[in-house]
Amino acid sequence: MSVDASGTTPAGAPAIAEARRQVEICNACRYCEGYCAVFPAIARQRAFADGDITQLANLCHNCRGCYYACQYTPPHEFAVNLPAALAEVRQESWERHMRPRALGALFHESGVALAAALALGLAALVGALAALRPVSGEGFYAYLSHGAMVAIFTPAFLAPLAIVALALRDYWREIGGERVRLSDIIAAGKSAGTMRNLDGGQGQGCNFEAEDRFSNKRRLFHQLTLYGFLLAFASTSSGTVLHYGFGTEAPYGLFSLPKLFGIPGGIMLCIGTAGLAWLKTRADPQLGAKRVWGGEMGFVLLLFFVSFTGLALYAATGTALVAPLLAIHLGSVLAFFALIPYSKMAHGFFRFAALIREAQHARLRQEGTAS
Amino acid sequence: MSARPDRYDIIVVGGGNAGLCAAVNAAETGARVAILESAPKTYRGGNSRHTRNFRCMHEGPLSVLTGTYGEDEYFEDLMLVTRGATDETLARLAIRSSEECLPWMESQGVRFQPSLSGTLSLSRTNAFFLGGGKALVNAYYNRCEDLGVDIYYDAEVRHVRLEGDRFTHCEVMMDGETVRVEGRAVVLASGGFQADLDWLTRAWGPAAANFLIRGTPYNRGVVLRDMLEQGAESVGDPTQCHAVAIDGRAPKFDGGIVTRLDCVPFSIVVNRDGERFYDEGEDVWPKRYAIWGRLVAAQPDQVGYSIIDAKSIDLFMPSVFPPIVADTLEGLAQKLGISGDRLAQTVARFNAACKPGDFHPTEKDGLTTNGLEPPKTNWARPIDTPPYHGYSLRPGVTFTYLGLKVSADAQVQTTRGPLANVWAAGEIMAGSILGQGYLAGFGMTIGTVFGRIAGREAAAHVG
Known about the structure:
The complex is a heterodimer. By secondary structure, chain A is an all-alpha fold. Chain A contains 14 helices and no strands. Chain A has helices at 14-29, 38-43, 50-59, 65-69, 82-97, 101-109, 111-131, 146-174, 182-194, 217-245, 257-282, 293-315, 322-338, 346-366. Chain A is elongated, with a radius of gyration of 22 Å. Helices cover 27% and strands 23% of the residues of chain B. Classes of the chains: A mainly alpha, B alpha/beta.
């Protein structure tokens, strides 16, 4: 059981109190134990501190299996809607831990604000392209010098990551996390890598978009997005290594590492994010955090836009479209990076932390030293 | 009265486990099937939506079930709880058929999971549904939709029309008007009458006012009464039912599993007058929970109070309602609304009768009282460590046993002989097999076995 050591949880926060009420009903029922990691975690305890509820909320993948199996959903007087209750707590925990808090509330709730941030990113890039246009340079660097790109993107990438790191430190304190071992990270990686918590416990999938029928569509689209994102990230990283380590400059040929990672990554991201956005239009908003629907949708579409413009930029090589596409693509990338702490992207970090903590519980129980 | 334009081959009255099994089996033959479910969609499934497992015979490990559970052992378990009040032919048919039911259920989309935490003692005999009974009900409804079964919600059957020994149509309340739905055969699977509190009161007297109904409020026995009034033969005693002791603060209807209390074996249970009335430690709780409903029903005001001390609070599954807590027995009694002196005396007498010995919460430990009446024959530890915890207990009725008499083919019987095209399955006929007492998970076995038989027989009749 955790103690709330950070002091940042508002005492008696209504979302946490409501989730606790529902979790205590779940703990007296336990029918859903086989669906995901949340219910065995509930069954380990009899009383739930605020930090415990926050951890359960971040462990929940919103598969909704428990909702459709629940005998106590509204209009029953027990009014259990655990996916929504935990989504609210989860959302609040991200907004609570990211600095400055006002930005979190703004971007999570508003797809319009996300679009505005994208426009700002674009405007900044177009301005930079005009102002910093190099006198010489090849490929992309004919439009924006490598030095200028680094000057813009390094802080835009590192500052959000620093904010995320601070937030995770606070989260870890709030949930009573312990020293992380490599085996905890590996276990969490396996869970995230297979999206085990969206498989319904037996591989039948989740109940996201087709009510009480199970489906693996969300799991598939999420993993296309996740692995597509990782490939795109690998593409950028390999480009960096080629640039600095081997003096090979962009643009790279089709059989270079950046392209071998980047093209499939971009295609996977496009399909994955388009699929996630489509599923979101079919899912019942009552089973999630309703107030952030627009922000979540805005985020998925932004990620689609980033990947789509990236592919378009490659396809446009050698044409007059490169200059505007480069501005659009890099502008959207800039907006995406800047919004990491204040958008749905936060879920990846908190979810992984929650999976690490859950792996610790499993390890400690195996070692016979229950925490 | 308006008539539905469609004439069905088979009408299934009631969309719980038994009705759904009948509908699937009938529809698989190509028959045109309708389900008339009296509840709205959110509450569909009758009591099945509150269930969690299926008691299943098996000659070797089967799906999630461990070891073996043979016909004779199963039947002996049934004889123990019913004290012989069963129909051996039907009971053995249900038991024998349960083994082939489990793989059939899986083939229909029902999923099983290993025994839930806190229920390990059932891992050999009872297969638990992944997600519980509502998930099972969802799987069957999806299967029915895929098979083209027409499903009507908020459709309460008021009258089953018989002409001679033949069913002709149902009169159904739908959207505020009475509709006639015709069929060539009918399967009655609409449950017991426990949610009709007037009927319960006629059977039990004023005590029934203090009963809580654990399951669906939609099982009001309308079809059961209609059939009995038309000469269908009945089985069972109207006072017999599956009743357990549940938390006295539970809602009047539909409280389901979370209102149960597992603390009784580690407690003493007193009545309104502060007196003990039964051996709380007679056996492990899964083997005794089903007798405590009647025990509490027999006490003044139909109430009991389970009293434990701080030593025992972590020994049982948490309940949905927090215990009443006080630092003294007198304080606890005051909060519970009983006499503090009487409770203190009863606890003192009990404590004085406890003997030293080894306490094992998970098995019968033989730690018994000495010279106390009634004795507590296991887990008898003095209640002496504050704070003290108390829960009020009320009888929680799951389903009534008075039902329709059926043949081994699930065909409904009258004093004049069997009805030609009427079958029954589930709680509406379970009284044939359960004369009294209850065996965990057996209601779902009866519903599945006889639902499948009824669906198959009805389909053969119209085919």
